[in-house]
Amino acid sequence: MKQPPKKENKDLTFQVTQPTELLNFLIEKIHGKSRNSIKSLLTHKQIKVGNKVVSQYNHPLNQGDIVKVTTVRHEEKKLIGLRIVYEDKYVIVIDKDPGVLSIATETEKRGTAYSILSEYVKEKHSQNRIFVLHRLDRETSGLMMFAKDQETQGMLQHHWDRSVRARSYVALVEGQVNQPQDTIVSWLKEGKTFVVHSSPIDNGGQKAVTNYRVLKNNRYYSLLALDLETGRKNQIRVHMQSIGHPVVGDKKYGATHNPIRRVGLHAMELSFIHPITNQLLEFSTPIPKKFTAVFGAEKSDVNIRRVNKK
Fold this sequence. Notes:
The structure is a single chain. It contains seven helices and 17 strands. The strands form three sheets. Strands 7, 8, 9, 10, 11, 12, 13, 14, 15, 16 and 17 form an eleven-stranded mixed β-sheet that branches. Helices cover 18% and strands 31% of the residues. It is globular and about 60 Å long. A hairpin with a 2-residue loop joins strand 3 (47-49) and strand 4. The protein has 310 residues and is an alpha+beta fold. It has three domains: 12-69, RNA-binding S4 domain (Structural Genomics Hypothetical 15.5 Kd Protein In mrcA-pckA Intergenic Region, Chain A), CATH 3.10.290.10; 76-158, Pseudouridine synthase; 163-310, Pseudouridine synthase (2-Layer Sandwich).
C-alpha cells in the first residue's frame, strides 16, 4: 500500500551576521510574508532565539545568534479577562480587559488579574508566585505588569520613576476639548467617601501631572492621548473632571453619557527599563474600536505620538 507523502517541514533557521533587532531581521530573511504576518509569528510564539521563545519585536540580536521560525503555533490555555503580551523569568506584561479588577478586594477575591496570573504561573510550578507593581482601575483596560519574584518587585518599585519611561493612555471624554494640548497640574487628596478631589494649590495631597493632546473631537466627544508624569490614584479621571470634560461612562467623576457602555479609558503604551537586563522594553495596544466609533470610524486613523510636555 502506498504511503502518504510526509508533510514538508517548513521550519526555518537563520544565523545573525551583524547586530540588529528581531523584527527587522525577520522581515529581511523571510520572503513572501507581510510585516503583519511576521508580527503574528511573534505573537503566537513561533520564533526562538537560541532555545528561548521570543515575542518582543525589538528584541536585540547579536552576531552569531541563531533564530528559528516554526510553523507550529504555541497554544496556551486562554486566560479569561486578559492576554499576556510579554513574559520572561522576571516580569509579565498583560493587556487587561475592562471590568477586571487588578487585585482582590474584601468582597471580591477571584477573577482578578492577580488571581488569574497566579493560577497561570502555578500551573508551571506550584511554588511560583507573582507580585503587584501597579494597578489599573477595574473599568480601565490596557497594559499592566507584574513581577515574578520579590526581588524584581522591590527593584522596580524602589526605582519606579527612573525605570518606567512611559505610561500613555487614551481617553474618550465628554464635550469638545478646544485646547489642542495642555498640561494639568494639581494636588489630589482622597476624601472619606473614597472620592479623590483636585486642588490647583497644595492641599496636603499628592502632586499630580498629566499631559494631554487632542487626537479627535466633535461637538459631543473628544479622544485624548495622555502621558502621566505621576501615577496617582484616579489621576486621569479626576483631572478630566477638573477641566470640565469627564471620561465617558465615569459616573463617579461627573460623566453623564456612556455611548460605549464602558469607561472610556485605556492604558495604551508602557515602556520600562528591565531591572535585570537593563534593556528598554516597549509595548503598545490598539485604541479600542468603541472609542473611535463615536466619530464614525471603525478603525483608528489617529496619529499617536508622545505628548509634548510644557
